[in-house]
Amino acid sequence: MGSYSTSEVLNAAAVGVHHPALRLHELDLKGSMSAEELPTTSGLENGHQAPFVIGVAGGASSGKSTVCKMIIDQLCDQRVVVVTQESFYYGLSDEELVHVHDYNFDHPDAFDTDLLLSCMEKLKHGKAVDIPSYDFKTHKSISCARKVNPSDVIILEGILLFHDSRVRDLMNMKIFVDTDADVRLTRRIRRDTIEKGRDIIAVLDQYSKFVKTAFEDFILPTKKYADIIIPRGADNSVAIDLIVQHIRTKLGQNDLCKIHPNLYVIQTTYQVSNVLTF
C-alpha cells in the first residue's frame, strides 16, 4: 500500500473513496504538518520523559491530602511524589513573629511562588531538588530540606495552587476538592489544636479574620480553572477512581513513547476518528 497524506485521505473520504487496511503510521503526517504542529504526548526532551503533573487545590482542611494519598495508593505501580505548597511559606521575621496572630497565612503573598516554580521546573527536566521544610510552630524554614527525585507523576497540593497562572501552566490535570465549610472548620479546629498545638480561641479568631475571607477572595474563584471538581472530597471514591483511570491511560501512552522514541501518540479528535472509520 502506498503512503497517503492526511489531507488526501480526508478529501477521498468526502467523495466516498475507500483505502483498505489504512494504518495511521502510513499517513504522511510530516507532509501535511510542520514539526511544531505534530501532535504528541511523548513529552520527550533531551531523552527525559516529562512527568504527569497533577494540581490538587481547595480550601484549608477540605481533604486535599487524603485525596492525594488515595491517588498514590491506587498508582502503586508508578513513581509518584507529592510537593506541598505549604513547604514554600515565607519564614516570618522577628517583628512578624511578635504579631503572628495578625499574619494572613492564606494570602497569596504568604508563599514563595518563585521558589516553587524553580523547583518544579527542575523536576520536570529530570533533576532532583531540595524542597524546603517549614516548621509551623516557629514559622520558619528549617535546615533539613526534603530531597525529591524526578518521577513519573508529580502531585502538587495546596490551597492557592490555581491562583498564579504560571503554576497552573505546569499542570496536566487540575483538581479542586470541594468540601462543605462547616466540615472544613471542624477539621481545622481538630488539626490545629492537636497537630500544631494552638489554642482553640486563637484558631477560631484566625478563621473568622483571615481563613474565611481568603477562601472567598482567593481560593473559591480559582475553582473555575479546575478540570475536575470533587464534591465531598475523599468521600467521593467514584470520582477518585475515574481520575486514577485517566492518569493510567496517560501514563500508558508515555510508556509507549519510552519504548518507541519516534512514536507520536495522536490525540483522539473528530477528524482522527473519521480517518480510523474510513
From TrEMBL:
Its EC number is 2.7.1.48. SUPFAM superfamilies: P-loop containing nucleoside triphosphate hydrolases (SSF52540). It catalyses: cytidine + ATP = CMP + ADP + H(+); uridine + ATP = UMP + ADP + H(+). Residues 53-238 form the Phosphoribulokinase/uridine kinase domain. CDD domains: UMPK. Keywords: ATP-binding, GTP-binding, Kinase, Multifunctional enzyme, Nucleotide-binding, Transferase. One of its GO terms (molecular function) is uridine kinase activity. Pathway: Pyrimidine metabolism; UMP biosynthesis via salvage pathway; UMP from uridine: step 1/1; Pyrimidine metabolism; CTP biosynthesis via salvage pathway; CTP from cytidine: step 1/3. It is an enzyme of class 2 (transferase). PANTHER family: URIDINE KINASE. Belongs to the uridine kinase family. This is Uridine kinase. It comes from Triticum urartu (Red wild einkorn).
